[in-house]
Every structure is written in structure tokens, then in C-alpha cells.
Amino acid sequence: MNSVVEVRRLTKTYKTTTALDDVSLSIDEDSIYGLLGRNGAGKTTLMSILTAQNFATSGDVEVFGEDPYENARVLNRMCFVRESQKYPDDSNARHALTNARLFFPHWDQDFADQLVSDFDLPLKTPIKKLSRGQQSAVGVIIGLASRAEITFFDEPYLGFDAVARQTFYDRLIADYAEHPRTIVLSSHLIDEVADLIEKVIVIDHGRIIMDETTEEVRSRAVNVVGDADAINRLVAGREVIHRESLGRVASVTMLGHLSNADRELIDDANLDLTPVSLQQLVVRSTQTDLAESSAAETDSRSLQS
């Protein structure tokens, strides 16, 4: 598969803070990525640099094989929609959509009109007077209707309620099926987007700690439900990352692969294997990385003292 983004040893520092620390990655064409991590992990900084809205301290970025900075050939093939998108004070949704139509060469006005109806978006009300959810709808409509070859969504849908978010997910996946392109979703709602994303990139403290397909990430762990005593025998000596119990029934997520003996125990005890929560795996990975970093810092201080 061809890559549309290549990042090599990218670092971004702000005075004493390192937002991105020697980041290298590739983003493939016609794929949906989940860009995941905690607040302040470096997700927005990375997307801002890729879309030439910020500058790297060091390292190289290529989008469609070129430097994106002040490069119209590259920039009009990308769309970056962020949660804190700014618009002129007197601008309304109609103005924003009209301007977007002029900028993006693959803009689909019929799709934009359908989305305006789906999200019940007032077109004549100044954007600054819209509700947070309606402001989110402006960005989401631009991101979807632009049909840009690469679209970055930096959590612009946080103002949506559950129904509006589901509408966004449904419209995104349906349009992606008909018009494949590269989509990067940055989200804290990991389990909500888990069924949409094909590849997972996790940033923690400015470093890439996971860059795999969703299937590969899920294969790191298994979730088992059934008799608590049988499950306790199964997980003995294993690393458990999540456990729930109700009476004699337990649900446990544990790291590692199942052996033949494990599968025999599962069959004999009539235990059920259920899908693993991507959110649990990502949260566990960032917690582990934080613990390892803290331990390394402690060891370093001990050596220096």
C-alpha cells in the first residue's frame, strides 16, 4: 500500500516542553487511522505540523512526497478540522461552507446539503451564536463534504450528543466506502470509534508507543466471561488489565495469547470469549509507558546521587 505521509525523526519543542520527541511514522492512502493518546500527548501538534499550521523544531515531513509548508499542491489535498476551529465574528455556517467549496477541489455540495439536514444546522445564524454541538457540525460537514485525500479530525465532534456522534460515524463510514481516502480521527472516545478505525497510532508524552493495525492491537489480549472460579484458574500468573464480577460470573481481560491448555479449560468450563475493549488496551499501554518512564527517571536520579 502506498504511503501519503512520511514522518522522520520529528521533534517539536516549546521552550522547556517537548511536544513531539523523535517521531517517525508512515500513513497509508485509503485507510482510517485512530490517533489516540491522553490530553497533551502531542496529537494536535503532530496534525498541525503535517498540515503546515505549525513548524517542526527538527526532522522531516513529506505529504504526497513533498514538503507541505506553503505548498498549495499539497495543502488543497488535505483538510484539518479541529475542535477549536476559529471563524470570523460575522461568519455564519453558509459563509463557512461556501468558502470551503471554493478551496477543496473534490467538494460535494449535495453531500454537504444532506449533512446540513442530518445535523439540523442553522445556516444564517452567526457561528459564534450557535450551540457547541452546532459549531461542531460546521467542522464535521466541511471535513466530510470536502472529500479531501487526507482528512484530519481533531475531536471536532466533542460538542455532539450521542445521537449526533453516531450520525457522524455512520455518514463517515458510508461515504468512505464509496469514496476511499485517508482519514485520521483523533479521539478520547476510543471504544466509540474502535469499529471505524483500521489502524491505531498511540502517542504518549510526545512519543509513538503503538503503530499497528486494530486487529494486531486486539490480538495482544483476550477477554473471557463465565464462572469466576474457572476464570481465576485461567488467569493465574497472567497480567490482568480489567476485571468485573457479578456473583459467580466474572469478566476478565488479560494480556497474552491462549495456549491449547487454556482453550481446553475454556471449553470444559463453558467460558465465553468476547471482543477485547480497544480502550482498555490503549489506556493500559499509556499507563505502562508512564510507569516505565517514571521508573527510568528514578533510576537516573539514583545513579546521579
UniProtKB/TrEMBL annotation:
Signal peptide residues are none
Q: Which residues form the ABC transporter domain?
A: 5-230
GO terms (molecular function) for this protein are: ATP binding
Extract the CDD domains matched here: ABC_DR_subfamily_A
| Keyword RNA-binding assigned | no
Q: Do you know which InterPro entries this protein is assigned to?
A: AAA+_ATPase, ABC_transporter-like_ATP-bd, ABC_Transporter_VariousFunc, P-loop_NTPase
Alphabetical UniProt keywords: ATP-binding, Nucleotide-binding, Transport
Q: Which PANTHER family match?
A: ABC TRANSPORTER ATP-BINDING PROTEIN ALBC-RELATED
Q: Name it.
A: ABC transporter ATP-binding protein
Q: What is the species of this protein?
A: Brevibacterium sediminis
